[in-house]
Amino acid sequence: MKTRIVELRRGILEKNDKLAAGLRNRFSTAGLLVLNLVSSPGSGKTAFLEWTLRKLVREDARAAALVGDLETDNDARRLASSGAPVRQINTHGECHLEAEWVSKHLEGWELGALDYLFIENVGNLVCPSNYDLGEQIRVVLLSVSEGEDKPLKYPTMFNSADAVVITKMDLAGPCEFDREAAVKNINEIRPGIRIFETSAKTGTGMEEWLGYLAEQRVGERAHEPARQ
Amino acid sequence: MKTRIVELRRGILEKNDKLAAGLRNRFSTAGLLVLNLVSSPGSGKTAFLEWTLRKLVREDARAAALVGDLETDNDARRLASSGAPVRQINTHGECHLEAEWVSKHLEGWELGALDYLFIENVGNLVCPSNYDLGEQIRVVLLSVSEGEDKPLKYPTMFNSADAVVITKMDLAGPCEFDREAAVKNINEIRPGIRIFETSAKTGTGMEEWLGYLAEQRVGERAHEPARQ
């Protein structure tokens, strides 16, 4: 049975990879920067994204979001209060998002009219690492309350990421967060990766994060084919 | 492909369920109480279990633990400092424990010489809910820093649990933990489930938890067949 499982899983991932490559092509053609946010449940993805969307909307950037959860549309409603277009993807038991569901939930949105698309994945530090969603940037979030050892214990997720956002820095004191150990462990798995130390509550590190988004967006637009 | 996946998954779960039923039978025959601890990464399973093992060992209870992680044996080493026998199960990328691996890692242990076996699952609030490990009691841990909405967003895990342990109560203030909302949400998914509010740092709620363990153990021994 194990061989059949491995084969079938490979087939699923290959199909997903193909769809994701197609999506990435569409995103690049549209000059759209797409970020896939992954983390444990409760790391503060939604609060971080809510802050980001509010700020981008206020600055007249055109940002949208897809948000994945097993159940409930609480997060989509919360994020929509930013004024950005937001859609919920309910996986009904599935532990990750797939490129196919992203594609379906983009129907009716004009990608060329957007600058940023954020995909908030299901809270899970294991399974989403295997599923490319066509994003240009994968961001893994790690809250100060989770423990500095998480990069070593969940290496695939950290190894496949392009940036790490440490969240809830306002709780670093009460949580006795060991910043040096966390940075050391992240670098052990993914040397030189960009790390942001943030708090969506106090705004710490958020301007640096916005600067990064703008830089990456410029980089993405450089690949954009000239419009007719 | 979807039909084949559903079928294959059903096959895997059926095989796991059979093995788990066999394990549960062995555990009951040995008069052993087995608990499966599940939670998000970073909820404090290891700190909670370390406290529990130390206390049980000090009281001459015979407790042992299996601990699941994708990589590293940090947790097994940490737990072994309690004096209890501990074995690490590395899943190398798999997002949950299965009955087969539990069975393999019990080899050489005399189950009749133990009172309690704790299985610390991989940190994941989705996938482990589908895999019975033969435990008599499934305990889901939820830290005060994760947000009170988690039971609603991960209903399968909370619905399949026998007890909920709220961890890191010492951080309830800084995290602005809304106890009433958490209890309400837990009860919405699993009405009447036993809830412990604990801190492995301050010891809050831990005596009540130990009392529960002793009660459950007595209940389990009542089923134990008379020894020859």
Short description:
Chain A has 228 residues and is an alpha/beta fold. Chain A contains 8 helices and 7 strands.
Which structural traits does this protein have?
7 strands; 8 helices; seven-stranded parallel sheet; Rossmann fold; alpha/beta; homodimer; 228 residues
CATH topology of chain A: Rossmann fold
CATH superfamily caption of chain A: P-loop containing nucleotide triphosphate hydrolases
Tally of extended strands of chain A?
Answer: 7
Runs of chain A in which pLDDT lies below 50 for 5 or more consecutive residues are none
Largest interface: A-B, 38 and 38 residues
Count of the separate structural domains of chain A? 1
* Strand residues, percent of chain A: 15-25%
The strand line-up of the biggest sheet of chain A is 3-2-4-1-5-6-7
Structural class of chain A: alpha/beta
Determine Rg of chain A (CA atoms, Å). Answer: 17 Å
Count of individual helical segments of chain A: 8
User: So what's the overall shape of chain A?
Assistant: globular
Specify the helix fraction band of chain A: 40-55%
Describe the structure.
- The structure is a homodimer of 228-residue chains.
- Chain A has one domain: P-loop containing nucleotide triphosphate hydrolases (Rossmann fold).
- By secondary structure, the first copy, chain A, is an alpha/beta fold.
- Chain A is built from 8 helices and 7 strands.
- In chain A, helix 2 (45-58) packs parallel to helix 3 (74-80).
- Chain A has helices spanning 2-29, 45-58, 74-80, 99-105, 150-153, 155-159, 179-189, 206-223; strands at residues 33-38, 63-69, 86-90, 116-120, 137-143, 163-167, 194-197.
- In chain A, strand 6 (163-167), helix 7 (179-189) and strand 7 (194-197) form a beta-alpha-beta unit.
- The first copy, chain A, has a 7-stranded parallel beta sheet, sandwiched between helices.
- The interface between A and B is large, with 38 and 38 residues.
